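Journal club prep — side note

Before the paper discussion, L.F. wants everyone to see what a predicted structure for a comparable chain looks like in token form. Sequence:
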Amino acid sequence: MPLEAVVVLIVVVVALVLLIAVLSAVTVVLLARRSGVSAAAALLRGGTAFGAALSLLALLVSTIAGLLR
């Protein structure tokens, strides 16, 4: 596989992972605000969800990369 294709694939995967993490954080913030939590607590929950989504997706990517070697 050419180097350019690998770079493009890496950029697309990183963008997709960030999109999933941001969407999960936004969903958590909206659901928290809807349940009556303060804005600060909702943002804290959203940040936690963002970090958790990034951690889980990084674990998944590293596991798949290890299996493909």
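L.F.'s comment for the group: The chain has a mean pLDDT of 90. Keep this in mind when we get to the figures.
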